[in-house]
């Protein structure tokens, strides 16, 4: 570890302990029996400013026995003081070859440094972070799965000071009282603690009751606390077609949900008002399960009306989105695309009165690997369908077509008209719904097949074709 330099947002004050250590090694020519040593205190450790910690090493002679009675010089990089009031101090190893010293961290903290024990050729180095509670943050990890009522939940967290992880610290956790959902830790206890150890993280297994609702966990390190709210809304399903409302009519968001996984597409307009779409094909639940976040992509691909070339599919990351999902009837959408950020409040688009009824066809559909990059979102309310074809123009840029209504002409065939829309520039602009232009470009027929697959027959701008579809297994 390079010392005495600027580290992250905390200045590491230049010291002279390492220089002193080198000078001390040059003084005298006394032979030492110690030839090697090991850490007894963890090698990676953290000390709060103004507090003390014992550093211990064990020294061995050339034969592997304890190096007793050795003079051991402890030094540090001016990040704290030893009992004698300096940055270096000598102690003597005990009959077991163990040498101990107390180290008191500088009260200001914010330093990454070394504490080193030296006896002849033997040297043992500790990597130390000194901190104050005003400089640290407990950072909960994103859960692998969405929390569910009655199911054990793993809460893990790291302690950080800027970009640096803090090791060997005790973090406690408890369930705050008087909440709708009760929970305990495995093994049962209302307050437990764990050490960040040498990987810098703690983990607690939480067992909630079966109620739907929320509860708060308090993580604590000294005077610092972090409250984590756990949302148990596993019964919510946000699959559907979402929009802002009449004030931004013409663009929207499709959400397809498979269990804990979401596939999200924004269908909107580019800087000149042409239809464009952004996909968030995967993501992760935020800590506590309150939101889902992922990377957004803008793709290029093969024109939809010609022999499709999957090799031309080229998704480019353009930003991130977060869907806040604490309300089953609403989504708070945060996004950043090409460094432009905004927040939109969405509700379900009511293209039919009630929720989907059986049989269900709402899903993300595709043509398999040979058609990768192109797809059809089918949204459903009652037995009404709303379809969107996500495809590409002749020049390879992304475009979409909407099929907002139709009729079941047979029990397995849904038919209607296809539209291209031209709208107002969406990204970073005040949206003008009155500039929306809806153009009838052809017809479609969505056919459901006995083996669970489907086909989309279409005529768009006089070009006819058919897409063999299956449900996309994300």
TrEMBL record:
<protein>
    <recommendedName>
        <fullName>Big-1 domain-containing protein</fullName>
    </recommendedName>
</protein>
<feature type="signal peptide">
    <location>
        <begin position="1"/>
        <end position="33"/>
    </location>
</feature>
<dbReference type="InterPro" id="IPR013783">
    <property type="entry name" value="Ig-like_fold"/>
</dbReference>
<keyword id="KW-0732">Signal</keyword>
């Amino acid at each position: 570890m390079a010392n005495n330099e600027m580290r992250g947002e905390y200045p590491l004050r230049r010291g002279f302990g390492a220089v002193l250590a080198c000078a001390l090694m040059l003084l005298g020519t006394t032979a030492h029996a110690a030839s090697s040593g090991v850490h007894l205190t963890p090698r990676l450790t953290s000390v709060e400013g103004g507090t003390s910690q014992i550093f211990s090493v064990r020294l061995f002679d050339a034969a592997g026995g304890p190096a007793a009675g050795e003079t051991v010089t402890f030094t540090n990089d001016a990040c704290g003081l030893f009992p004698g009031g300096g940055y270096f101090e000598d102690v003597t190893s005990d009959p077991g070859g163990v040498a101990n010293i107390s180290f008191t961290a500088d009260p200001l903290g914010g330093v990454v440094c070394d504490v080193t024990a030296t006896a002849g050729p033997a040297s043992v180095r500790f990597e130390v972070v000194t901190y104050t509670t005003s400089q640290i943050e407990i950072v909960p990890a994103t859960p692998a799965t969405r929390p569910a009522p009655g199911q054990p939940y793993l809460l893990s967290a790291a302690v950080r000071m800027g970009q640096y992880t803090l090791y060997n610290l005790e973090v406690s956790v408890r369930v705050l009282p008087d909440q709708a959902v009760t929970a305990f830790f495995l093994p049962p206890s209302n307050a437990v603690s764990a050490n960040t150890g040498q990987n810098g993280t703690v983990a607690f297994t939480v067992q909630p009751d079966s109620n739907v609702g929320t509860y708060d966990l308090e993580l604590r390190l000294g005077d610092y606390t972090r409250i984590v709210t756990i949302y148990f809304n596993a019964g919510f399903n946000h699959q559907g077609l979402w929009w802002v409302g009449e004030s931004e009519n013409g663009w929207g968001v499709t959400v397809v949900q498979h269990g804990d996984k979401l596939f999200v597409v924004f269908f909107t307009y580019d800087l000149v008002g042409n239809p464009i779409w952004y996909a968030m094909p995967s993501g992760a639940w935020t800590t506590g399960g309150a939101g889902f976040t992922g990377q957004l992509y803008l793709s290029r691909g093969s024109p939809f009306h010609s022999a499709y070339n999957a090799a031309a599919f080229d998704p480019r990351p353009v930003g991130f989105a977060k869907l806040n999902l604490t309300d089953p009837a609403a989504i708070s959408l945060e996004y950043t695309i090409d460094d432009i950020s905004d927040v939109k409040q969405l509700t379900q688009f009511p293209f039919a009165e009630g929720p989907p009824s059986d049989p269900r066809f709402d899903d993300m559909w595709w043509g398999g690997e040979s058609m990768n990059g192109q797809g059809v979102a089918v949204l459903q309310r009652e037995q009404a369908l709303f379809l969107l074809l996500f495809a590409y123009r002749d020049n390879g840029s992304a475009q979409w077509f909407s099929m907002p209504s139709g009729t079941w002409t047979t029990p397995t065939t849904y038919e209607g008209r296809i539209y291209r829309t031209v709208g107002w520039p969406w990204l970073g602009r005040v949206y003008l719904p009155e500039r929306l232009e809806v153009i009838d470009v052809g017809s479609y027929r969505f056919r459901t097949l006995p083996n669970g697959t489907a086909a989309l027959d279409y005529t768009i701008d006089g070009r006819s074709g058919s897409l063999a579809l299956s449900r996309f297994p994300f």
